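Work Package 4 report. The design task specified in the project plan requires that, given a folded chain encoded as structure tokens, an amino acid be chosen for each position. We show below one input record used in the internal validation round.
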């Protein structure tokens, strides 16, 4: 599943499958953020982008990918063009790479409705750095809730909390060219994904509150299909190449769905532990063994 909000400015990152129950154990923490961390994304070769109240930071994890982390190891950070500033906290981000480009790019969205693209460049001493190539505010500005990229068509889908879904073509310099913008009534997209077939791939939107999955036409954004999951969606992780997606059902736990039939295959229940907590206190007056 995609990483969620952490209440600490430290990233608990780089874990190893060494614990007694074949789970994961913490190996190190990445220190640098000065507020809440709200989103993360990582490349296959180990570049980690994290976004939060203080903007975006990019960490170099490439030297430890697939290896045991030495005790004194600390992740270095790549140069970033800017912090949060007036754009506000970073709420969603995604790595992108055009098929005709050798370098990665990073797209992120903010609480104020801004979308920005950073392009990988060579800095001083041939060190990797990032340069901003594009920034704009979406229609009906609001918190950016989801970003998805399709490398086969070089298209980028973005949504915000004001029910807006926008589709862009990504240019060679990671600049964005609008294809369509639609407003979906009573539907706040929490996640986006592209279909894996068709001449022009459709866009899927997963609704945060209504639990609805819309299929949008890849040319004009018109709704082609609508599926009801029957639950609210806390978050989504979609792997449509394998024909499945997982959603966070707040009432039951993690649910695995099959894309071909939209059927729920399995629910992985999450145990709920509750403890007694005091809510109110009051003084009482005791006289002759009687409580008043």
């Amino acid at each position: 599943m995609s990483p969620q909000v952490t209440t600490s400015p430290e990233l608990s990152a780089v874990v190893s499958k060494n614990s007694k129950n074949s789970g994961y154990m913490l190996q190190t923490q990445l220190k640098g953020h000065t507020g809440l961390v709200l989103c993360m994304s990582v490349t296959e070769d180990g570049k980690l982008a994290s976004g939060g109240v203080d903007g975006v930071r990019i960490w170099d994890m490439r030297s430890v990918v697939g290896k045991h982390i030495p005790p004194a190891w600390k992740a270095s950070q790549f140069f970033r063009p800017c912090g949060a500033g007036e754009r506000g906290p970073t709420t969603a981000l995604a790595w992108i790479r055009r098929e005709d480009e050798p370098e990665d790019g990073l797209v992120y969205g903010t609480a104020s409705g801004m979308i920005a693209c950073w392009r990988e460049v060579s800095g001083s001493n041939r060190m990797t750095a990032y340069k901003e190539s594009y920034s704009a505010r979406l229609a009906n500005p609001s918190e950016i809730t989801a970003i998805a990229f399709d490398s086969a068509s070089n298209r980028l889908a973005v949504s915000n909390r004001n029910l807006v879904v926008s589709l862009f073509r990504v240019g060679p310099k990671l600049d964005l060219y609008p294809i369509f913008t639609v407003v979906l009534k009573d539907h706040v997209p929490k996640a986006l994904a592209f279909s894996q077939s068709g001449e022009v791939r459709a866009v899927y939107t997963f609704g945060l509150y209504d639990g609805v999955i819309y299929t949008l036409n890849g040319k004009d954004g018109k709704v082609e299909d609508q599926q009801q999951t029957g639950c609210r969606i806390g978050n989504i992780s979609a792997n449509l190449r394998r024909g499945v997606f997982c959603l966070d059902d707040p009432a039951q736990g993690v649910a695995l769905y099959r894309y071909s039939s939209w059927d729920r295959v399995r629910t992985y229940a999450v145990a709920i532990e509750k403890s007694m907590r005091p809510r109110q206190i009051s003084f009482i007056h005791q006289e002759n063994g009687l409580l008043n």
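The CA atoms of residues 276 and 282 lie 17 Å apart. Validation will be extended to a larger panel in the next phase.
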